Amino acid sequence: MENFKILMPLAFLLVGIHSAMADTPCNCTYDDIIGTWKFFESKRGLVHRVNCSAMDTDTFRHISIFQLLFPNTVIDSYGNRGTWTLIYNQGFEIMINNRKYFAFSKWIEPDPHHVTSVCEQTVPGWSHDKYVRDWSCFVGHKIKTPLSRIKPAETKTYNIMTNYKNAFYSEYRFLNNMKFIDKINKAQTNWYAVAYPEFEDLSRLEMLRKLGGIKSKIMNRPKPARITEHVQNLANELPDQFDWRNVSGSCGSCYAFASAAMHEARYRILTDNQHQPVFSPQDIIECSQYSQGCDGGFPYLIGGKYAEDFGFVTEQCNPYSGIIKDEAICTTDPQCKRHYATDYQYVGGFYGATNEPLMRLALVNSGPLAVGIEAFDDLIHYRGGIYHHTKIHDDSNFPTKWNPFELTNHAVLIVGYGVDKKSNIPYWIVKNSWGTNWGEHGYFRIKRGIDECGIESLAVQATPIPTF
């Protein structure tokens, strides 16, 4: 099949010094959530930006019972059916009776060094009708687990990384480790690594955040879904090459950049490039209750849910500064016009349903995809080629004895795919948020079809609603 390429300008991603550092410390799996839940809901008709965490849950008197079934069906006590999805390891969302319910799972911190996930409960969450007008708050309590999934009770308590507070990380500069770079280049020939002198202006802690951060990890990342014959047949009709590109502050905000960039690109596609908005990541990190500001977030909740519930403003309305002066204040002018989206979902329809052919179909038919990848320390030095993790570790900057480096969730944007003519290796074309001097003009290619670094397990898409 001959090469096929569509050139489409993507909005320039502002250079973020950091990537997502931390999300909620909770870690709840599919088996933890599936089962029967009782929701205690407040009165409805609350204001749009209600702070549910500040409400007295003892006043939540309306009770609903929901049964969450495999793989994504929910049934209420009246027999009505809807859908649900896990949201990473953080919480879940239910869509039933023209209403949505979203909450993070509960956790407690018994001491400064540990966190315990309480997966059978939620913290106060948000609910609204499908028109995003009639708001309420709720808390959920799991009251029954399916017999087929019952297992001995387990208390999930994890260490909270505190070594990064050591002066070795917070005060000392990151140094390009030339021995580490040399090992990468000798270990394989698919991509090559270089030193980036500009990174030496950052502390080692800032470099950890750049890769995704101390706590921004998914301990139980799903595997790509099974590829059905129907999906494979559809994917076989796609071009061999596809590319939407026109190659022409201290904050953990990669999730905001990736989410904004997805909507910018899809907005242009829907309007035949007649409208080219650039959306504000600063509004997201300051104003979204669905993320943790400079401490991180996930594309499903920002590129999807925040875009539908609250909308994006343009960059000129709230320019990126990379910092939050006051976590309690959203500085976006209320008069700024907001741009909304709808139909947000994991590619495949729900958490765990994503795979490579479905991603290619979504990419070609609808536009770029926001994804979360496992970011390793060798990615820092990528200059060009088709990236894959070398399993080589930079012990001088991130000593193993302190265990600072864990799998992180770094949000990026897939804009195309292809097959290398020399090696015949299939790859994704991915936009990063580390500036145009990094990698291949700010992009990198990564192996496709083998879920390299988890890139084919958590893709998110949404449809912008053009507003002129």
Q: What's the structural domain tally?
A: 2
Order of helices and strands: HEEEEEEEEEEHHEHHEHHHEHEEEEEE
Structural class, from secondary structure content? alpha+beta
Shape: globular
Written account of the structure:
- The structure is a single chain.
- The chain has 468 residues and is an alpha+beta fold.
- It has two domains: 30-158, Cathepsin C, exclusion domain (Lipocalin, Beta Barrel); 167-465, Alpha-Beta Complex (Cathepsin B, Chain A), CATH 3.90.70.
- Helices cover 17% and strands 27% of the residues.
- It has an eight-stranded antiparallel β-barrel.
- Strand 16 (409-419) and strand 17 form a beta hairpin.
- The longest helix is centred in the middle third of the chain and has 17 residues, at 254-270.
- The model is unreliable at 1-22, 160-164 and 401-406 (pLDDT under 50).
What is the topological layout?
Layout: H1 30-33, E1 35-41, E2 62-69, E3 73-76, E4 81-87, E5 91-96, E6 99-111, E7 114-122, E8 125-129, E9 135-144, E10 156-159, H2 167-170, H3 178-187, E11 191-193, H4 204-210, H5 229-236, E12 242-243, H6 254-270, H7 281-287, H8 299-309, E13 340-346, H9 356-366, E14 369-374, E15 382-387, E16 409-419, E17 426-431, E18 443-447, E19 460-465
Parallel strand pairs: 15-18
Antiparallel strand pairs: 1-2, 1-9, 2-3, 3-4, 4-5, 5-6, 6-7, 6-8, 7-10, 8-9, 11-15, 12-16, 13-19, 14-16, 16-17, 17-18
